[in-house]
């Protein structure tokens, strides 16, 4: 387990007493996934907070017609969780799937909630996760309102340049709210501007 990277993402671990730290680490587990493996189903009420040691994960919603709508992509050294389960104790609206061989460190959401409840001094941790979740949601909404599809794509490749050759274009297009054909046109337009 890469404790150094885990502590970078969860700095509050260093503030725990040795008993609490042991309790936290005791409840984490390593998960190894193959490409295509689903590790959280839409509608599930039992979730975890996942730290991605290596690999690539997407979350998606399946609509009434059976269409999958990708909403997030996460890769190494990022955290992924179902905010519906973590913040509201509601069923997850999304399915989580590994897109390539992936290694995760996970801690059950209920265990994390109990850890925070039992340590009032760690209320800042709860606020951190809430702020991060709200910030991501508001940023996504703002992007759809304020940015053109081309600017949304440019923002994506600026923030996640490492994903362009790792993620099928249909997932990126889906996440940006456009069709794969539209994304192809945008990419050609951008490429022509560079020449």
Question: What's the structural blueprint in terms of helices and strands?
Answer:
Layout: H1 3-9, H2 18-26, E1 28-33, E2 38-40, E3 48-54, E4 56-62, E5 68-75, E6 79-81, H3 83-88, E7 95-98, E8 102-108, H4 109-118, H5 123-146, H6 149-159, H7 169-176, H8 180-194
Antiparallel strand pairs: 1-8, 2-7, 3-6, 3-8, 4-5, 4-7
Helix pairs in contact: 7-8
Key words describing this protein structure:
Jelly Rolls; four-stranded antiparallel beta sheet; 8 strands; 195 residues; 23% strand; alpha+beta
Mind explaining what this structure looks like?
The chain is built from eight helices and eight strands. It folds into two domains: 3-145, Jelly Rolls; 147-195. By secondary structure, it is of the alpha+beta class. The strands form two sheets. It has a four-stranded antiparallel beta sheet with strand order 1-8-3-6. The protein has a four-stranded antiparallel beta sheet with strand order 2-7-4-5. A hairpin with a 5-residue loop joins strand 4 and strand 5. 22% of the residues are buried. The model has no long low-confidence stretch (mean pLDDT 87). The chain is 46% helix and 23% strand. Helix 7 (169-176) crosses helix 8.
């Amino acid at each position: 387990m890469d404790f150094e990277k885990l502590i970078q993402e969860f700095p509050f671990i260093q503030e725990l007493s040795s008993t609490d730290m042991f309790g936290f680490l005791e409840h984490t587990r390593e998960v190894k996934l193959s490409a295509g493996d689903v590790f959280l189903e839409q509608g599930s009420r039992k979730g975890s907070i996942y730290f991605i040691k290596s690999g690539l994960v997407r979350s998606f919603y399946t609509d009434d017609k059976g269409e999958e709508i990708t909403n997030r992509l996460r890769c190494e050294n990022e955290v992924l969780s179902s905010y519906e389960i973590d913040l509201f104790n509601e069923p997850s609206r999304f399915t989580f799937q590994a897109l390539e061989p992936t290694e995760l460190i996970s801690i059950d959401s209920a265990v994390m909630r109990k850890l925070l409840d039992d340590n009032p001094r760690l209320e800042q941790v709860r606020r951190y996760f809430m702020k991060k979740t709200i910030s991501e949601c508001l940023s996504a909404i703002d992007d759809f309102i304020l940015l053109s599809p081309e600017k949304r794509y440019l923002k994506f490749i600026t923030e996640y340049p490492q994903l362009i050759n790792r993620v099928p274009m249909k997932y990126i297009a889906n996440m940006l709210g456009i069709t794969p054909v539209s994304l192809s046109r945008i990419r050609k337009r951008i490429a022509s501007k560079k020449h």
